[in-house]
C-alpha cells in the first residue's frame, strides 16, 4: 500500500496495536460465507439481534424533530441522563451516586475502556487484564504503552499492578464474579476498572452484581455501564463511566479535548430506556437463558454460561473453530483471540435467532460425530 506521505513512518503507537480481533474475524467469516454451500450460521459476533423497545425509538424520533437537538450538545452529557443512570444504580444495584460528580456519559463503553487506560496508566505502568478477556483491553494497554500483566477470570489472583481491569459477567468466559474478587481488587491498591457490559444478563435466578456495591469500591475505581446489551442499543453508542469522582473527571477532561458531546436524540433515548418500563430487559435475559439451556443440554462438551449471551466451550481434541467454519459452515469466535489462555476453547454467541441456534446446535453435533 502507498503511504500517504513519501517516506512517512507510522507512529510507534499504531505499530504497537495488536490485530483487531473482531475486524479480522468478521472478514474471515464473510469470506467463508461468500463461498458456495449451505447458509453459514454465525455464532461469532456479540451483536444483539433485537433492538430497543418502541418507547425508546419514539423518544429519539421526538428529539430528532426538536430544534434544540441540532447544535453541539453539552460536552459532558445531559444532567437528566446522569440522574436516570444514578436512579437505576440506586434501585437495581443498591449503589448511591452523585450524578454530577460520579457519572461520565460516553459514546459506548468500548471507547471508554481504551481511554481509561490512557488516563490511569503512565507509560510502563502495569495493567492487569483478564486472560481470556475482551480483546480491546489489550489494545488499550498497547496504546498507553503500559506493561501487560494477566490473571485468570475464573480463578483470579492479582500480582503487583497499577491498574486492574475486571469484567463480570465475563466475555468470553461467561462466568459471574467469583466470591471475593471485587473485595480483593478493592484491597489491592491499584485503580480498578470494572466492565459491567453484561451486568443485567445473569442466569439461574442470580441478581446483577455491581462492583460499586463493594465497600470501598468508589475510592479506587469505576464501572462501565453499557446501553448496548441490556437494551439492545449497540448501534446507538451510549454508555457510562461511573464511580470514583477523580477518574470520572479525568475521562471528562480527555473527552473535552477529543469529542463534542453525544447527539441529543441518543441521550433522550437513553433516558427513556432507563426510566421507562423495564420488561424488555427481563425478556431479553430470559430469551438468552432459554437459548443457553438449549445449547448446554444438547452439547456433550465442557461448556460454561452463568451470564452474558455467550457459551464458553472447550473444543474436543482435533476440532478447531477453523474446521467448524470451513467444514461445517458454523462460525464461532476462536478462544485464542481472547488471549493465550483461550486456546482450545471457543465462544458461542446466543445473540442469534432461535432458528439459527437450532441450526448451529445441529451442526456442532454433526461435527462431533
Ligand atoms: C466485555 C465488553 N465490554 C465492552 C463492550 C463494548 O460495548 P459498547 O457497545 O458499550 O461499546 C463489549 C461489546 O461487545 C464487550 O463485550
Can you describe this structure?
- The protein has 369 residues and is an alpha/beta fold.
- The chain has two domains: 12-51 and 280-368, Alpha-Beta Complex (Aspartate Aminotransferase, domain 1); 72-275, 3-Layer(aba) Sandwich (Aspartate Aminotransferase, domain 2).
- Helices cover 41% and strands 14% of the residues.
- The protein has a seven-stranded mixed beta sheet, sandwiched between helices. A four-stranded antiparallel beta sheet has the order 9-10-13-12, covered by helices on one side.
- α12 (279-298) runs parallel beside α14 (354-368).
- The chain is globular, with a radius of gyration of 21 Å.
- The structure holds pyridoxal-5'-phosphate.
Strand content: 5-15%
Order of helices and strands: HHEHHEHEHEEHEHEHEHHHEEHEEEH
Any ligands, ions or cofactors bound here, and which? pyridoxal-5'-phosphate
N-to-C CA distance: 45 Å
CATH C-level class of the largest domain: Alpha Beta
Can you tell me the overall shape? globular
Coarse structural class: alpha/beta
Mean pLDDT: 96
Number of helices: 14
Q: What is the CATH topology assignment of the largest domain?
A: Aspartate Aminotransferase, domain 2
Radius of gyration over C-alpha positions, nearest whole angstrom: 21 Å
* Main sheet overview: 7 strands, mixed
The total beta strand count reads 13
Q: Into which percent range does the helicity of residues fall?
A: 40-55%
What's the helix and strand layout?
Blueprint: H1 12-16, H2 21-33, E1 41-42, H3 54-64, H4 79-93, E2 103-106, H5 109-120, E3 126-130, H6 135-144, E4 147-151, E5 163-167, H7 181-188, E6 191-195, H8 217-220, E7 221-226, H9 227-231, E8 239-243, H10 245-258, H11 264-275, H12 279-298, E9 303-304, E10 310-314, H13 321-328, E11 330-331, E12 333-334, E13 345-349, H14 354-368
Parallel strand pairs: 1-11, 3-4, 3-5, 5-6, 6-7
Antiparallel strand pairs: 2-8, 7-8, 9-10, 10-13, 12-13
The structure holds pyridoxal-5'-phosphate.
